[in-house]
């Protein structure tokens, strides 16, 4: 199998460099998503009480989840900016900027005064900082994916490109674990007073570690080859939407189902539903957070398995298997949660992670193989950001509103099933391009539409 090459004067890529890229991708995205998910966990557990309490119990919860969703509306801005500069100036510099931006925003959330201290200015500042997190997340994923995918040998692209994907469940594991630890260190009212702030302030240390590791990684060989030929696209986003706008929509819909289901935990909804003292479950915060952390481990495992399987049977077939597993897990999810038995709640979350892993592990390689080299950063980043908006952005808020309106989680299950079925259709529309060369020499081949119903995009 062919492996990516840098410009002739740079020499071939070594296995040591590939391992360094994979390690940096895992660490960097873990730090980014830790920051992103620790906010979502806090939104489900404390932000309603601390920043939106005057709105009343139920409405405060919905407003808290709304701040989680608002950030998704700004992820396309991060994706547009990162795509433009990443396709013009390289993947590495964008990754450094997004890491720092996310860390600064997260740290300042931990320092915010509450509504009781400064009134309406508190939720306004909270929303501004969440928007900055959204911009950072919108630019982060595409760069990390391409650094991993474009360094990989073609026959192992799924496994290499899954490095940033693994960072997502690792980020959830870290965020849930730290939050759970703080419920032990600062129980009850102490958690509301100061315990929830500690996970945000820890971001400073994590950002320093991630920044150091990313500085030691070489630029993507595909971009170096494009730059060596002076073939960077001056307006990559314009070119992307001029020639590939249908592909952006289909790729976004492929991700939307996974995003909607995944944000039941990463968006804090399950945590809120299971710990609400006035709800049907009423579990303590600590055990629920540990259960979410445990499910993050199985999500990580099945993400890696899904990526490995996709290198063998193709991205599309792996996705279809994953969608079937996800649909099967959605039916018993809320009945298991509503038993108020922490072990059955954990079982429901673990079952969910099998399908989530099989529909998340192959995503990085799938996206990298869909778009031509000259607009790949823009295409990958924008498709991911739009898919996140269509799927996960307001999923926790929608779930909370559905339960408030119907008094049951049956409508939430129906909503999630519908989202997955949309993604199934989008997956069926794509041709599998496993192993397609990613370098600029193959731009013509890459530009042929992978959408099955058209000859050109």
Automatic annotation (TrEMBL):
<feature type="transmembrane region" description="Helical">
    <location>
        <begin position="247"/>
        <end position="268"/>
    </location>
</feature>
<feature type="transmembrane region" description="Helical">
    <location>
        <begin position="159"/>
        <end position="182"/>
    </location>
</feature>
<dbReference type="InterPro" id="IPR005828">
    <property type="entry name" value="MFS_sugar_transport-like"/>
</dbReference>
<feature type="transmembrane region" description="Helical">
    <location>
        <begin position="21"/>
        <end position="47"/>
    </location>
</feature>
<comment type="function">
    <text>May be a proton symporter involved in the uptake of osmolytes such as proline and glycine betaine.</text>
</comment>
<protein>
    <recommendedName>
        <fullName>Putative proline/betaine transporter</fullName>
    </recommendedName>
</protein>
<feature type="transmembrane region" description="Helical">
    <location>
        <begin position="288"/>
        <end position="307"/>
    </location>
</feature>
<dbReference type="InterPro" id="IPR011701">
    <property type="entry name" value="MFS"/>
</dbReference>
<dbReference type="GO" id="GO:0005886">
    <property type="term" value="C:plasma membrane"/>
</dbReference>
<feature type="transmembrane region" description="Helical">
    <location>
        <begin position="409"/>
        <end position="430"/>
    </location>
</feature>
<feature type="transmembrane region" description="Helical">
    <location>
        <begin position="319"/>
        <end position="336"/>
    </location>
</feature>
<feature type="transmembrane region" description="Helical">
    <location>
        <begin position="93"/>
        <end position="118"/>
    </location>
</feature>
<feature type="transmembrane region" description="Helical">
    <location>
        <begin position="382"/>
        <end position="403"/>
    </location>
</feature>
<dbReference type="InterPro" id="IPR036259">
    <property type="entry name" value="MFS_trans_sf"/>
</dbReference>
<dbReference type="InterPro" id="IPR020846">
    <property type="entry name" value="MFS_dom"/>
</dbReference>
<feature type="transmembrane region" description="Helical">
    <location>
        <begin position="342"/>
        <end position="361"/>
    </location>
</feature>
<keyword id="KW-0812">Transmembrane</keyword>
<feature type="transmembrane region" description="Helical">
    <location>
        <begin position="194"/>
        <end position="213"/>
    </location>
</feature>
<keyword id="KW-1003">Cell membrane</keyword>
<comment type="similarity">
    <text>Belongs to the major facilitator superfamily. Metabolite:H+ Symporter (MHS) family (TC 2.A.1.6) family.</text>
</comment>
<keyword id="KW-0813">Transport</keyword>
<keyword id="KW-1133">Transmembrane helix</keyword>
<feature type="transmembrane region" description="Helical">
    <location>
        <begin position="59"/>
        <end position="81"/>
    </location>
</feature>
<dbReference type="Pfam" id="PF07690">
    <property type="entry name" value="MFS_1"/>
</dbReference>
<dbReference type="InterPro" id="IPR005829">
    <property type="entry name" value="Sugar_transporter_CS"/>
</dbReference>
<feature type="transmembrane region" description="Helical">
    <location>
        <begin position="124"/>
        <end position="147"/>
    </location>
</feature>
<keyword id="KW-0472">Membrane</keyword>
<feature type="domain" description="Major facilitator superfamily (MFS) profile">
    <location>
        <begin position="21"/>
        <end position="435"/>
    </location>
</feature>
<dbReference type="GO" id="GO:0015293">
    <property type="term" value="F:symporter activity"/>
</dbReference>
<dbReference type="Pfam" id="PF00083">
    <property type="entry name" value="Sugar_tr"/>
</dbReference>
<keyword id="KW-0769">Symport</keyword>
